[in-house]
Amino acid sequence: MLIFNHSSFLTFTLMGIPGLESQHLWLSLPFSSMFLAILIGNGAILFLVAIESTLHSPMYLLLALLMVADLISTLALLPKLLCLFLFNDRDIAANACFTQMFFIHGTSVVRSALLVAMAFDRFVAVCEPLRYNTILSHSLVGRLGLLALAKGVILILPMPLLLQRLTFCQMVIPHTYCDHMAVVKMACGHTRPNRIYGLFVILLVVGLDLLLIGFSYGLILQSVVRLNSRDATCKALNTCSAHFFVILVTYVPALFSSLTHRIGHNIPPHAHVLLANLYLLLPSVLNPIIYGIKMKEIRHKVAKCLCRGSA
After folding, report:
1. b/e per residue 92-115 (b: at least 16 CB within 10 A)
2. In sequence order, what are the residues at sequence separation of 6 or more whose Cβ sits closer than 8 angstroms to the Cβ of residue 190?
3. What 3-state class would DSSP assign to 267?
4. Within 10 A of 12 (CB to CB), how many other CB atoms are there?
5. Is 117 left (phi over 0), alpha (psi -120 to 50) or beta?
6. 165-181 pLDDT tens trace
7. Phi first, then psi: what are they for 165, rounded to 5°?
8. How many CA within 13 A on the CB side of residue 78?
9. Cα distances (Å, whole numbers) of residue 152 to 13, 42, 147, 201
């Protein structure tokens, strides 16, 4: 068995989607379409928030931060994936692999933390509407964004650092990107610290963040139940609907992918890899659509820009 040390000088080979290597060229079409949709959709929302002073409220500033996280995640994943599919460019240096891993997993943590901040924003909007601007000042939004960034860096940075101490017996990663567990499985020797830390991060991020989001929505529902007016109840629920759909789009595919990876032993490898890619890309594709449909202010600004462009 060959043993490769000095991970800084290693080169890994990305297999792509196991069992579907002959279909990579065709698979590049939907992934290219998603790449284009993400760039246009998220870029358009960011542009609107930047140029329209009426969209400089805490909710839209947090939304802009979410779009930035989505764009960074996409740019870390799709360019290399499309090179693999279109040009069969499979090689990736170890340092580049660890960097990609850091940005992909780090932005997932940041995205989850921002969803918690947005749940708090919706709680204040529904339960303390008169104090909304006082509580959620621009400085607080900035601190929440920095806290989300710090969480992503602190939790994910140890992953590539722990991998650098390992020796590797295999160099072909059966994946389209440098997923943490996929790279850990390439190592020989003692990988228990890597596996335990990876599981710890998943439980902390998904478990704690979902608990905080659930707590916020529990308080929101409690407040909504007390409303006597049906119109006020509908308005309060509509205020939270876009964020609720984004939560579903973010966490359901991620949890489904994680469960199939751990207990779905009869599921073919290509299904695992496709699910792992979808849970990263689906939120980035759908978030601008959800907010564009559900948020009246964004719909009006888009219509205004389109009318101005056609005039």
Report:
1. bebeebbebbbbbbbbbbbbbbbb
2. none
3. coil
4. 25
5. alpha
6. 888 888 899 999 999 98
7. -85, -10
8. 25
9. 27, 21, 9, 10
3-state DSSP call for residue 84? helix
pLDDT of the residue at 65 = 96
Residue 76: both structure tokens together: 């870390």
Lookup: tokens for 132: 């909304």
In whole angstroms, give the CA distance from residue 173 to residue 19: 13
pTM score, whole prediction: 0.91
Q: How far apart are CA 274 and CA 79, in angstroms?
A: 16
pLDDT tens readout for residues 145-159: 999 999 999 999 999
Determine the average pLDDT of the residues in 248-265: 75
Q: Are 177 and 83 in contact (CB under 8 A)?
A: no
Cα 238 to chain centroid distance, Å, stands at 24
Question: For the chain, how long is the longest CA-to-CA vector?
Answer: 72
Paired strand residues for 12: 92
Residue 255 in contact with residue 276, Cβ under 8 Å?
Answer: no
Average pLDDT, the chain: 87
Which residue type occupies 176?
A: T
Tens digit of each residue's pLDDT (9 = 90 or more) over 44-62: 999 989 988 888 899 999 9
C-beta atoms surrounding 135 within 10 Å: 14
Residue 91 has phi, psi (to 5 degrees) of -75, 140
**Residue 256 half-sphere exposure, CB side, CA atoms within 13 Å?**
16
Distance CA 164, CA 184 (A): 11
The one-letter code for the residue type at 266 is: N
